[in-house]
């Protein structure tokens, strides 16, 4: 039997099983039929999709509030991407640009970037701000997931 991991739909938030042995084929959500994000990738949903994902995902969600002009944010990008790959099937990783979507940052009370928030079923279970080492970041996420 093919190995499968959980992934939440970036459109409706429904958690699906994604077969890992599928190469070059699109995998769609069982509920809304939109294409699912590849497990282990960092997604950048539109605001309405983000809210659906935050409320409906059964997987914990790590949100990276960032700005492309922020040096600490840019330092954290490879750290966040590495964590997303290592924690495939255990959590979803979402990047939100506060310059493009200031309403999302405001709705979470984000006052500085980078800010990282862990959500479970729409509820905030952890928050930290600023750059940190990959080991410290991984430990912080592990303590919240």
Name the shape in a single word. Answer: globular
What structural category characterises the helix and strand content?
A: alpha/beta
CATH superfamily: Glutaredoxin
What's the CATH C level? Alpha Beta
Strand order of the largest sheet: 3-5-4-6-7
Beginning-to-end CA distance, first to last residue: 28 Å
Number of H- or I-type helical stretches: 4
Estimate the mean pLDDT confidence. 94
Radius of gyration: 15 Å
| CATH-defined topology | Glutaredoxin
Strand content: 25-35%
SSE string, helices as H and strands as E: EEEHEHEHEEH
Number of domains: 1
Summed up, what is this model?
The protein is α/β, with parallel strands linked by helices and 145 residues long. It is built from four helices and seven strands, in the order βββαβαβαββα.
Overview features:
single chain; 145 residues; Glutaredoxin; 5-stranded mixed β-sheet; 4 helices; 30% helix
Report on this structure.
With 145 residues, this protein is α/β, with parallel strands linked by helices. It has one domain (39-144): Glutaredoxin (3-Layer(aba) Sandwich), CATH 3.40.30. The protein has four helices and seven strands; from the N terminus they run βββαβαβαββα. A five-stranded mixed β-sheet has the order 3-5-4-6-7, with helices on both faces. It has a two-stranded antiparallel sheet with strand order 1-2. The model has no long low-confidence stretch (mean pLDDT 94).
Task: Describe the SSE topology.
Blueprint: E1 4-8, E2 15-19, E3 42-43, H1 47-56, E4 61-66, H2 71-86, E5 92-97, H3 102-107, E6 115-120, E7 123-129, H4 134-144
Parallel strand pairs: 3-5, 4-5
Antiparallel strand pairs: 1-2, 4-6, 6-7
């Amino acid at each position: 039997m093919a190995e499968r991991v959980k992934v939440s739909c970036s459109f409706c938030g429904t958690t699906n099983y994604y077969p890992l042995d599928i190469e070059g084929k699109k995998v769609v959500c069982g509920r809304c039929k939109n294409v699912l994000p590849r497990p282990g990738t960092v997604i950048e949903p539109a605001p309405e999709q983000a809210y659906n994902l935050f409320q409906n995902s059964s997987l914990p969600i790590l949100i990276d509030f960032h700005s492309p002009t922020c040096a600490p944010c840019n330092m954290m990008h490879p750290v966040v991407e590495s964590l997303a790959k290592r924690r495939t099937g255990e959590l979803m990783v979402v990047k939100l640009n506060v310059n493009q979507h200031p309403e999302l940052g405001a709705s979470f009370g984000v006052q500085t970037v980078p800010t990282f928030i862990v959500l479970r079923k729409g509820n905030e279970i952890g928050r930290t701000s600023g750059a940190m080492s990959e080991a410290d970041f991984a430990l912080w996420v592990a303590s919240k997931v």
